UniProtKB/TrEMBL annotation:
Domain of life, source organism: Eukaryota
Feature: compositional bias, Low complexity: 20-39
InterPro entries in UniProt: DHC, Dynein_heavy_tail
Protein name: Dynein axonemal heavy chain 2
Gene Ontology cellular-component annotations: axonemal dynein complex
GO molecular function: dynein intermediate chain binding; dynein light intermediate chain binding
Region Disordered, residue ranges: 1-67
GO biological process: microtubule-based movement
Species: Phyllostomus discolor
Compositional bias segments (type: Basic residues): 1-11
Annotated ranges, domain Dynein heavy chain tail: 238-713
Amino acid sequence: MSGKPEKKRKVSGWGSTRKQAAQGAPAAQAGDATLPASEPELELEPLKENSEAALEESEVQKENLQEPEVDVKPLFLSRAMLTGLADAKWTEEHDTILEHFAQDPSEPILTIFIDPCSGLKLDLGMPVQTQNQIVYFIRQALVPITPENFEATVQFGTVRGSYIPALLRLLSGVFAPQVFTNTSWPESIRNHFASHLHRFLACLTDTRYKLEGHTVLYIPAEAMMMKPEVVFKDKELVQRLETSMIHWTRQIKEVLSAQETVETGENLGPLEEIEFWRNRCMDLSGISTQLVKEGVKHIESILRLAKSSYLAPFMKLAQQIQDGSCQAQSNLTFLSILKEPYQELAFMPPKDISSKLPKLISLIRIIWVNSPYYNTRERLTSLFRKMSNEIIRLCCHAISLDRIFEGYVNSSKEDLHGCISCCHAWKDHYLQAVQMHTQFSSRGWVLDQTSIFAQVDAFVQRCKDLIEVCDCQYHFARWEDGKQGPLPCFFGAQGPQITRNLLEIEDIFHKNLYTLRAVRGGILDVKNTSWHEDYNRFRAGVKDLEVMTQNLITSAFEKVRDVEHGVLLLDTFHRLSAREAIKRTYDKKAVDLYMLFNTELALVNRELNKKWPYLEPYKAQYSGQAHWVRILRRRIDRVMNCLSSAHFLPHIGTGEESVHTYQQMVQAIDELVRKTFQDWTSTLDKDCIRRLDMPLLRISQEKAGMLDINFDKYKTYPHLISLYLTPSTYSVFGSILFPNCPKSLIPIF
C-alpha cells in the first residue's frame, strides 16, 4: 500500500482528471457521434478507474478519522484581549466548553469574561449579570471550527464597559466613518445604507443617554466638512439630514410632554417632584446648549437653503425649549424650599409627623402666591396630592405586615392607630389652612379636595381593615404580642368537648388568615382592588366563626346551675364580647346569670318569710334565730361578692334590678337581726348583770367536802347562762352587748 502523500496526490490527480473530463465533456460528446458502435470496450476503462478512486478516497477518510484533532485553543486565546486573563486560572472545564463550541455547529456564540466572584468564566451565550469586559466569538457558518476556516468562520471582538455605550463608540469611531467616506460603492446602495445607519445611530444615541436621564441630539457627521451651498444640492443627503431633524423634533416633543407624565404619577411624592424639575432643568439646559452647537446650526443652514418644511416646526420647538428651561429653573427654585422639611419627615414616626404639617402647608402656600409658573390649579392640586402620597408612604414604612400576621397584635394596632391619627391630622391641618386662606387672601382656594384626599381616605380604611385583622387574631386565636395566651380551662363533663371546639375554631381562623396574607398585590397599596375581594372573603369566614362561637357559648351554659360557674365562663369568653354578633349572646348569658341570682334571692326571701324557722335543739331561741338569719345573708353575700368582682359583666337593666333587690333584702335581714336582739333584751331584768357576780358553784351546806350548783332558780340567770354557754350567742350578740370592745377582750361569763 502506498504512503499517505502518494494517496493524496492520487486523489488530487483524480480530482484534476475529473475537472479535465468535465471541461472536455462537450468535445467528447461531439466525438461520440463519430465512434463506431462496434467498440464498447472503450467504456469499461473509466468505470475501473472510478472504482479504484472511490476505494482510495475511503481509505483516505479512514486515515483522517484516525488523525489527532488540531487544538484550536491557541487561536481563541491569542485573540482574547481581556484584562487579567494572563493571571486567571485555566481549568479543564474551560477546555471542555471551548472544545464544545468549536465542534458543535449549533452553538452560535462564546463569551469569555472575568467574574468578580467566580473568576474566569466561559459561557455559551451572553452573561446574565453585567460585566466590565467581555470577549465574544460569534460563529458565522454552521460548521466546526478548524485552523483552516477560523478566519472565515469566526467573528470576534472585545466589549468594554456597558454594552450600549461600547456599541455606540464602536459604530461612531470605527464603522460609520468608513461607510460615509467610502466612494467605491454604487451611489444608490451607499445612500440607502447610509440612511439606515443614520437612523440606527440616532436611536442608539438616544437610548444610550436616556439610560442616564439625559437627552442628546445625534448630529450626523456626513455633511460637517461640506459647505451648505454644496450640500443642499444633494437631495439624498438633504433627505438624510431631514430624517435627523425629524428625530430631533420627536425627542424635543417627548421632553416637553414629560411634565404630563409626572403629574399623572399617583405614587410620587414632593421629593420626586423636586428631583423631576432638577433633571428637567438640566435636560432642557443641555438641549439648549446643543441647539446652539456648530453642528446643529450647520444642519439648520443647509435645510434653510433647501427650504425644508421640517425646519419651521423644529425652530418653534427650539424656542419652547428655551422658555421651558426658564420655567423649569423657576419651579426648581421655589420647590427647593420643600426639600429639607420633607427630608426631616423621612426619619419621623407617623405620630410625630402631625406637628410638621402646618409648616409644610405654609411653604406650599408661599409657592402658590409667589411662583410665576407653579401657581396653576392643576400643579398645586398635584403637589398636595403628592404630599398625601408622601404621608401614606411614611405610614407604610411604619407598618410591618409580617408583625401583623405573626401575632404582634398590640404593637401593630398601636402603629396602625398612629397612622390613622397622622392622616386625620393632615386633613384637619389642610382644612384649617383653607379657612385661613379664605379669610385673609383675595385668591380663592380652588383646589380639588376630593382628588387630594381620595387615597388618604382609602389608606385610612385599609388601616382599619388591618386593625380588624389584629382584633380577630386576639379574639379567635389568643394572639397578643407574638405569643398566644393560655388556653382556657373548662371544668365539668363538657370541659374537654368545649376545649376541642375552641381549638377547631382557632384552626379554621388560622387557615383564613393565611389565605388573606397570601393575597396578590400589595396589601397597603390603596390601588390594589383585589384586596377588597380577599378581605370580604376573610370577613365571611369570620362571620362563620362568630356563629360557631355563639353556639359554643350557648352549649357551655347549658350545664350552669350556679352564679359562680357562670361568672367563670363569662370571664373566659369576655375577650370575644367586643364583637357585635357575639356580644348579643354574651349579654343574653349575663342576663341568665342575673336570673340565677334572682332565683337565689327568691329562695332566701322564702326562708325569711317562714314564721317558725327550724332551729337545732342546742340553739337558744333568740340567738339561734339571729344566727340563722345571718347564715342566709352570708349566702347571698357570697353570690353578690362574686358578681361585684366580675368587672367584665355588662351593665344591663336586669343586673341593676337584681342589685337593688339584694340591697333591700340585706337591709331587711339587718333589721330582723336588730329586732331579734331587741326582743331578747326585753326579756331581761335591768339588774341582771349583777347576778353574774354570784359564783356558779358553792360549798355544799348539806354534804361536807362537796360542791353544789349555785344557779338562780327563778329569773334571768338561766338565760344569761344560755347566752354565754351557747357559741352562736357570742357570735351574734357579742358585738351588740360590747360594741366598743375587741372580741379578744369580751369577758367570758
